[in-house]
Amino acid sequence: ATYNQLELLLIQIDRNLDDKQHSLMTDIMCLDMRATLKKGDRAPLANETERNIVLTRLENEIPSEL
What we know:
There is one protein chain. The protein is mainly alpha-helical. It has one domain. It has 2 helices and no strands.
């Protein structure tokens, strides 16, 4: 009985580990795609600060540098 319970726990742990590995691989792929989008040829802004200013629509509220 104990052996069967241990085997069931092992199966459950293996399944959970597979799910977590899949989640990590998905996260890594998403981060890679995001990095490409942020730094690719189509990225209109030079850095993240400028990008955040545009995304939050604060261009008119921040004084321009001379």
